[in-house]
Amino acid sequence: MSGAAAPTALAEPSERVGRAWTASLSLVNGAIWAGWYGPIQILLALQAAELAPAGTAKESVLAWVTGAGAAVSMVANPLFGALSDRTTSRLGRRTPWIVAGVAGGAVALVLLAGARSVAAMAVGWCGVQLTLNAAFAAVTAALPDRVPPGQRGAVGGWLGAAQILGVMAGTGLATAGGGLAGGYRACAAFAVLGALPYVLLHRDLVLPAGRRPAAGPVAVLRGLWISPRRHPDLAWAWLTRFLINLGNALALLYLLYYLRDVLRRPDPGGGVLILTALNGVTLLGTVVVGGIWSDRTGRRKPFVLGAGVIMAAATGLLAGWQTWTGALCAAALLGVGFGVFTSVDLALMTEVLPAAADRAKDLGVINIANSLPQVAAPVLAAPLVHHLGGYRVLYAVAAAIGLVGALLVRRIRGVA
Fold first, then answer.
1. How confident is the model over 139-198, as pLDDT tens digits?
2. What's this model's pTM, rounded to 2 decimal places?
3. Biggest CA pair distance of the chain
4. Cα dist. 184→27, 41, 187, 260 in Å?
């Protein structure tokens, strides 16, 4: 860096992180995912059915609301990441945004609980996405900030385990909360409590004011564009993540309705909880092991490819075997694939970042590949279900999209 030693906040980390740091970062990550997926898995679907105007399908209401929230997420994650990269607080670059994001997310969840119209529901969910993405951008950036490359698969595995446990916790809280209001408030409380150990027990890296990137609005907005021509590995990695996540989003979006309307489950909410728990068990069996194995071999692409193929096969089961047993098998197999993908793909992404000074912003751009599928999935899913063949076609298309994404990881050249 122009002949000057890089400050610690911008240096490539070389010291391995300890178990306590990994555990507390994983906990706040899981808390954020609980704040997202309690609503996504249960509460928003129930609320959409309750608030849908006469003559409007509940699926359409859910699609509008989740699509609007995902659109906010696409902007919020890289934007707050860019602001985090430029933060010179004595508390560090990341901690202030974790605090503000989680607190704001809790408030937004409580307000969402009181929504009495589709418009209010959409505004509330957009608020949840805006605030929790501020925290998530900071949490994600902590991985390349603090973890050396040879440990990122393992730490990414623990973050992935926390993610699925957060999804399970959010689903459980939403189910056991005693109604919409109780479910939302339980998710809000969990999000706040889960962030406290990391915020209170671990010091963040401080960026000297003199090393802050250009902070004007034009510079921030211009920096959100990353040229795929100049950084082709990042572009292929982004596309791989997008397509695999799109296939997964299509598979999960209408799961509650699939259980109720196709499989005729008497308790579809409980069915979602069972499938989520089974998925979580198999995911937890592979997410950490996959990351550690990837670290030891020094390879990322074969793991991402194999995981994507397994996930596509699992989604294909939902298309070809439409029974409760088929759903159970699909959930178990999807967990195996998603576990490996979650840990190893995150490590892969940190190895194609262009610059240390923009880690959170660049990861925010990469994370659009997580949120954009939430916008695209409702657009694709609603016509597939209502006009182009129903749930069988929906899941076949989801499997094909995920398989294409898995195959594209081979185009990355700079990572083994």
1. 999 999 999 988 999 999 999 889 878 988 998 999 888 889 999 999 999 999 999 999
2. 0.82
3. 68
4. 19, 12, 5, 22
Is the Cα torsion angle 34, 106, 23, 360 positive or negative in sign? positive
CA 159 to CA 15: how far, in whole Å?
A: 19
Q: For 55-89, how does the pLDDT look when each residue is reduced to its tens digit (9 = 90+)?
A: 888 888 998 898 899 889 889 999 999 999 999 99
Are 22 and 157 in contact, with CB atoms under 8 Å apart?
Answer: no
> H or E element: which one contains 147?
none
* Residue among 9, 27, 26, 36 at smallest CA distance from 291: 26
Q: Rounded distance, CA 111 to CA 234, Å? A: 38
Return d(Cα 398, Cα 342) in angstroms, integer: 18
Does the pLDDT of residue 7 top 70, yes or no? no
Tell me the CA distances in angstroms from 111 to 124, 185, 310, 355, one per residue in order. 6, 9, 39, 38
What pLDDT is attached to residue 162? Answer: 92
Per-residue pLDDT at 215:
66
Q: Positive or negative, the Cα torsion across 249, 181, 166, 131? A: positive
Closest CA to 254 of 327, 183, 173, 163: 327
- Report d(CA 261, CA 242) in Å as an integer: 29
In contact, 263 and 324? CB cutoff 8 Å? yes
Say how many C-beta atoms besides its own lie within 10 A of residue 218's C-beta. Answer: 8
Contact 34, 107 (CB under 8 A): no
Between the CA atoms of 269, 134, 98 and 203, what dihedral angle is there, to the nearest 10 degrees? 140
Residues 95, 379: Cα–Cα separation, whole Å: 36
